[in-house]
Design goal:
This protein is mostly beta strands. It has a single domain, classed as monomeric porin ompg (Porin, Beta Barrel), CATH 2.40.160. The protein has a twelve-stranded antiparallel beta barrel with strand order 1-4-5-6-8-9-10-11-12-13-14-15. Strands 2-3 form a two-stranded antiparallel sheet. Strand 4 and strand 5 form a beta hairpin. The N and C termini lie far apart (44 Å).
């Protein structure tokens, strides 16, 4: 079975499960007696507006295995708002794509049902200093936690049918180290294919250390199977798809 077919099946399954959960919630809400509080079968998040922000420094801005900062450091930041299962946010980074900065806008829902956590949303990628390269992705994903292990899979498809991405991930919580760090290891693999050819696979593995409540440090190895010609055509240089170790430190507020 082709990867495109697998992605299509996964996409339909996630969207279908989210709709089923939503229908179940609507039916339950209608059945409430006056004064009774609904218990959502796909609860996720608190029923109040929550705002958060992050600031990040990374030694290389890697997007799906490819350097988007010419193998140089990048400064990044985000701002997010959540209300129950709904979320909105924006994320920005210095980048060499289009000789511009990148600003992304996103929104969606993150319901939980029967032990599974869903994420269905839209991502709008923009490069304000460039023209003709902005794009929109639809995301559908699901994850589940088994003790210290969390596994997930997500599909991203570009709305103009230029490409499709299927990505799997796993993270294992190691617990507290030296009475200071909250440690975890994780990694992922993704399959990226284009309608015009140039498909490739990317993967990563790394260690994340949380500390001082809202700080984290991450060291991660990235690599792809992109050949030199394909990488040069896609990213502008064959070196941008080579294996590398990336260090990142971030703070949340």
């Amino acid at each position: 079975m082709a990867r495109q077919d697998i992605a299509g099946i996964f996409k339909s399954a996630v969207l279908g499960a989210t709709l089923v959960a939503g229908s179940a919630f609507a039916a339950q809400a209608q059945a409430l007696v006056p004064g009774e509080q609904a218990i959502s079968p796909f609860a996720g998040g608190s029923n109040q507006l929550e705002l958060s922000a992050t600031a990040t420094f990374t030694t290389d801005y890697i997007f799906r295995g490819v350097s988007f900062s010419d193998q140089k450091p990048a400064i990044q930041g985000s701002f997010d708002a959540t209300y129950g299962v709904f979320y909105l946010g924006m994320w920005g980074s210095s980048t060499t794509v289009g000789d511009s900065i990148e600003i992304d806008y996103y929104g969606g829902i993150t319901p939980s049902w029967a032990g599974f956590d869903f994420d269905v949303g839209v991502i709008w990628f923009t490069w304000p200093g460039a023209s003709g390269i902005d794009l929109v992705e639809i995301k559908s994903g699901v994850s589940r936690t088994f003790g210290n292990l969390t596994v997930g899979v997500a599909n991203y498809w570009e709305t103009q049918s230029v490409y499709d991405v299927l990505e799997g991930s796993a993270e294992y919580a190691l617990g507290e180290w030296f009475n200071f760090f909250d440690a975890s290891v994780g990694g992922g693999v993704g399959f990226y294919w284009f309608d015009d050819g140039g498909d490739y696979t990317y993967w990563n593995a790394g260690l994340t250390l949380g500390f001082l409540e809202n700080w984290s440090a991450d060291i991660r190895y990235w690599d792809t199977d992109f050949n030199d010609q394909g990488c040069a055509a896609y990213a502008g240089s064959r070196d941008f798809c080579d294996g590398r170790v990336v260090g990142t430190i971030s703070a949340s507020f």
